[in-house]
Design a protein that fits this description.
By secondary structure, this protein is of the alpha+beta class. The protein folds into two domains: 53 residues, Thrombin, subunit H; 97 residues, CarD-like, C-terminal domain (Methane Monooxygenase Hydroxylase, Chain G, domain 1, Up-down Bundle). Helices cover 44% and strands 20% of the residues. It is built from five helices and five strands; from the N terminus they run βββββααααα. The chain has a five-stranded antiparallel beta sheet. The chain is globular and about 55 Å long. The protein starts with 6 loop residues before the first strand and ends in an 11-residue tail after the last helix.
């Protein structure tokens, strides 16, 4: 069970704070909900306490897990690229990984898109997924590593400096 004021991660939405636990009656049954405010956009979510784990609600990663994710981003040996795979299939795969809530899956999407961008201009949809992955990674790592989100973004951009445009944009 999550505590009030605990930072949690909701898949594809990012880091949020448990503001309270509410009980509501739905179809005659009392159900408890976590009320979670997503920090990036101030959206409020109601997550059933009983289903929190099955929808992917989890605690923010530890410092060690955060460091591991940065190492995973540096390692390019698992880069598959886009050979033989059309954009629609990649888009579905990447979207599913972002929705999984697994930080390593999000890092995989970020790395793949940054590296694909090295060889071709990313489409609008690819750029949108790239920004979503970057935002999810940088916000969670900023809490886990106790560093500023922009500092994390800059560190990642430095890792991929060879694939970014001259102006540092993705």
């Amino acid at each position: 069970m999550f505590e009030i004021n605990e930072l949690v991660v909701y898949p594809a939405q990012g880091v949020g704070k448990v503001e309270r636990v509410e009980t509501q009656e739905i179809r005659g049954a009392k159900t408890e909900f976590y009320i979670v405010r997503i920090l990036a956009n101030n959206v409020t979510l109601m997550v059933p306490v009983a289903n929190a784990e099955s929808v992917g609600l989890r605690s923010v990663c530890t410092r060690e897990e955060g460091q591991t994710v940065l190492e995973v981003l540096k390692d390019r040996s698992d880069f598959t690229g886009y050979t033989g795979q059309n954009w629609n299939r990649r888009y579905r795969e990447y979207s599913e990984k972002l929705k999984s809530g697994n930080l390593r899956d999000v890092a995989y999407v970020l790395k793949e898109l940054l590296l694909i961008g090295r060889d071709k201009e990313l489409s609008f949809g690819e750029r949108r997924l790239l920004e979503q992955a970057m935002s999810l990674i940088t916000l969670e790592l900023s809490f886990a590593l106790e560093r500023d989100q922009e500092e994390i973004r800059e560190s990642i951009q430095e890792m991929f400096a060879d694939v970014l445009n001259e102006d540092g944009k993705m």
